[in-house]
Structure formats: structure tokens, C-alpha cells
Backbone:
DNA sequence: TCTTGATCCTCTAGTGGCTAGAGATTCTAG
DNA sequence: CTAGAATCTCTAGCCACTAGAGGATCAAGA
């Protein structure tokens, strides 16, 4: 315990200025300070920050994360509300997965079909150039 | 030909201010203007913008797109670079899908349990907070 | 105790990739 | 000729950081 900000950064992979930024926007609470005005953190902050980092990596917006955090910290709160928030999140997550999988398919198809030769035969470029014509004609 | 910017926007799905922005950052060339200083585009710009839009939708960064565009204009060059840009991107997409699926599982578990009246053991935070421990121990 | 160098502080400004809005001009159909 | 849609430039804003200046504090060793 009594972790200084740099150590917190090391443990969570969130950079020091970003931690201060999160405090500023109220995503994490302002921790106690030393006599000399330096921040000191505890174990809960490590968890919370790790959570935030993963959620950010997953592409959730800060506002979204605020909701998830709030939900997780009110175990006694009305189940109705938590339920509907969670369901909305689930829907959103499903949409994301769907889109990423479509994207994945397209990317990997592109890569497969790239003959590793000249640009003029490279499907990566071709596919990006025009989605609708790529299977049919390319001589005008 | 002689397409005004709004028409270009309609044909490519890229918004008017975004087209001007792309010109500003040099992603597309400054087109000729009318007497009255309005931009007029031709067919090549439509293609180029479509390429850009599609690549952006696939999540490629502008700098990557710059590279892909440059490559596409040297048809004799090797497509090795395009291939590696796309592969790196694919890896990233895979990582995202994996994490989202973990989150999805946890969310839907929560929702199930919520149906039974208890959210007091919500583990959303744990799941996202520390990826490495979630399968093993959660009683300290 | 003093010093040194790593870490910390606050503050302002910059980044990417747009997006919005003001206020003026130009184009085009009737 | 005119009305109104589209265009122009410019500035400022958005989100989620990131960088850097300039100074204070902390911990370990001499």
C-alpha cells in the first residue's frame, strides 16, 4: 500500500499523466497526499485502473466505463437498473464483436489473396480501392 | 466530371468538411477551382476517396493509408509492405475480439444471475481488472 | 546532515481525426 | 433577376490522451 503514482502506472500499464487526467475528469477519486503533496494509492486503485485500461482497450468510451464502474460498485442497487444497463452493454458488445468479425474476415481474405508479388495484383490495394467491383470487372 | 464537393461527398460517403480536411492534411490533392473559387473534382478523386473511406472503416490510421496509397501508385513495387500493414492490423483485431468475448461472457453471466435477484457478486471488474487471475483464484 | 538524482507536482499546449458554426460568396433553376 | 441551396474560409470544439516546462519532494548513500 501507499503506492506512489509511478508505481501505480507500472502495475497497471496506465501512464502517469493519464492517471492524473483520469483523476481530473473524475474517473478515479483523488487519493490522499503526502505532506509534500504527492499522491499515494492503495490496492483498490490498482484494480480500478486495470479495469479502466482493459475497458479502454476494448474501445469503450469513458462515459460508458463510468457506468460500468458505478454498476459494479453498488451491489445492493436496484437489480432492475443494473440489469438494463448490463443488457444495453451486452447489446453494444455484441454489435462490436459482430463488426470486428466482419472486419476480420475481410482483412484476412485480403491478406490471403495477396499473391506476395507486385502491387498490381495485390488484393489488399484492390479491395480497398473499390468494394463493389472487386469481384467482377476491372478493365473498363 | 467537374464534380462539386457536395456531389463528391454523396458519391463517396465522406462528409464535405472531412474532404476539405483531407485536402488540408495532404491526403488528397488540392483540386482545380472554378472562377468563383469552388473545388471541382474528377473521377480519380472519387476512387481515391473511396479507397480512403474504406480503409478508415477497416480501422487503418491515416498514416497507414498514406502508405497504402503511395504503394498503390507504384504498381511494379512489391506488396510486401501492404501485406505487413494489413497483418499487423489483423492481429490487433483478433486481440480485440478475444477480449470482447471474455467481457461478453461476464456480462451475460451477470444478467443471468440478476434474474435470480443478486448482483452482489458482480465480477465485471475482476474480469476486466486482471486478465491473468480470473480463471484461477478469487478468494483471497 | 547533506547531496544527488529519480520521481513527483501543476500548468499549458499539442495530437489525431474529425465536426460544428459563423459569416460571406457563388452557383443554378425558375 | 432572384431566391435559396451549396460553397467558401476561418475559428473553435470534441475526446482521450501525451508532451514538455519549470519547479518541489523523496529516498538512499557519503
Residues:
Amino acid at each position: 500500500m501507499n503506492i506512489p503514482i509511478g508505481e501505480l502506472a507500472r502495475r497497471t500499464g496506465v501512464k502517469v499523466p493519464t492517471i492524473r487526467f483520469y483523476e481530473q475528469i473524475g474517473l478515479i477519486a483523488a487519493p490522499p497526499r503526502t505532506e509534500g503533496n504527492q499522491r499515494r494509492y492503495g490496492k483498490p486503485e490498482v484494480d480500478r485502473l486495470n479495469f479502466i485500461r482493459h475497458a479502454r482497450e476494448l474501445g469503450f468510451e469513458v462515459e460508458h466505463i463510468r457506468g460500468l464502474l458505478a454498476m459494479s460498485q453498488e451491489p445492493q442497487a436496484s437489480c432492475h437498473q443494473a440489469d438494463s444497463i448490463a443488457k444495453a452493454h451486452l447489446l453494444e458488445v455484441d454489435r462490436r464483436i459482430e463488426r470486428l468479425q466482419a472486419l476480420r474476415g475481410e482483412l484476412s481474405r485480403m491478406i490471403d489473396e495477396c499473391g506476395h508479388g507486385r502491387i498490381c495484383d495485390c488484393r489488399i490495394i484492390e479491395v480497398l480501392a473499390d468494394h463493389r467491383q472487386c469481384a467482377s470487372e476491372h478493365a473498363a
Residues 131-140 of chain A have pLDDT under 50 and may be disordered. Strands of chain A lie at 3-4, 40-41.
